Amino acid sequence: MKLLNEILGTKYPIIQGGMANIATGEFAAACSNAGALGIIGAGGMNADTLRENIRRCKQLTDKPFGVNIMLMHPQADEFAQIVVEEGVQVVTTGAGNPGKYVPMWKAAGIKVIPVVAAAVLAKHLEKLGIDAVIAEGTESGGHVGEMATMALVPQVADAVSIPVVAAGGIADGHGLAAALALGASGVAMGTRFVCVDECPISDNHRQWVINHTEKDTVLCQKTIGSMMRVSKNNASLLANEIENRGLRTGKGPMDILKEQMPVITGQKTRVAFQDGNVDSAIFCAGMGMGLVHDVVPVKVLLDRMVKEAEAHEAEDKKRKEEVETLNRADSMIFEVDKQLKELGDKLSAEDKATVENELAEFKKVRETNDAEQIKNATEAFTQKVYAVFGKIYQQQGAGDPNAQAGGAQNAGNASSDGASDADYDVH
Length: 427
Prior knowledge:
- Helix 3 packs parallel to helix 4 and helix 6 (119-126) runs parallel beside helix 7.
- The protein has helices at residues 4-8, 25-34, 47-60, 76-85, 102-107, 119-126, 149-159, 173-181, 191-194, 203-211, 234-248, 253-264, 266-275, 298-343, 349-367, 371-396, 401-404, 408-413, and strands spanning 14-16, 38-41, 65-70, 90-94, 111-116, 133-136, 142-143, 164-167, 186-189, 217-220, 228-231.
- It is elongated, with a radius of gyration of 29 Å.
- It has an eight-stranded parallel beta sheet. Strands 7-11-10 form a three-stranded antiparallel beta sheet, covered by helices on one side.
- Helix 5 (102-107) links the parallel strand 4 and strand 5.
- By secondary structure, the chain is an alpha/beta fold.
């Protein structure tokens, strides 16, 4: 499995989410320079400001970066053309199907990575020639589906042959390690990137994220077909109150949206991010904010995440080796017991006693669960037992005793089916 950094040419297998009104050209460049794939969020821009942000990003980094296009944006068609004209290397998409743009983007050499909330959509998009998918669980901030990351990522990974990027509730190296173990090639994060020095958001918003937990998000805009996970503040509670009242009084989705617009408009969010009034507008926040405890430079965050993930890798390799050692010992005990039953009447009393004694001693060692001691004992046990069994097959002229002995030695060398295969290199 190729990791995301190998596919995108970044240092780390991490994508900075295209957060509307936050993910500027400057911020994307800072994230790319630190080792992630920086993303410009077109959601809060128009055609002119998107082009300006792309050009500023190019001036600030020579590393790969991308643009996120929300497909329900009224200028999505223009955005799709601008990324081609400006030579953007990667496009991520959300809130819709990018199918009509994919041929144009691929012809321009752009890597296309849509966000999906279900395996069926990932399978459909794979046929269009996209390069990867972001499997985004409902824990994410912003537009979300209903399936959780833990269930979604492996289902998408099983459904497609292209790389899968995990998103939703990921905020540290433990989440990165877990995503890779689920079959992902990397991760995408939004909420965690709010709390880095370079993020162009007010200190009040950063502190709000640090002070709150996974319980402090809500889903809103469900009725109008644009469900979002946002911070639980006065604005989002008011938006939900309007929606619930509208449902009770028989209003349709468009009437509810019309009443909600003064509360949920992106213009209010842009102002709030600058003036620091956390309650004046909704802002996207994922459940991973319960894992956010500090504000650090983006490079510190990324380096820390990778070190945490590498620690999991080392521990997983150690555990895998231990499991394989224990399983090999169990296989040897089973096979030797079997051989004693099948060959007992052909063994001399002395040889049979030797095998039985060796087996009894080996079982005692196995009961210790000391992997290193068991590993050493297994080698000695194998040699002694096969020295005895080998005599029988030589006397019978059966050739290779290994092949005739019911595969016991092969069992001794077999690896465990139950061992965790968490081998990865985040570099």
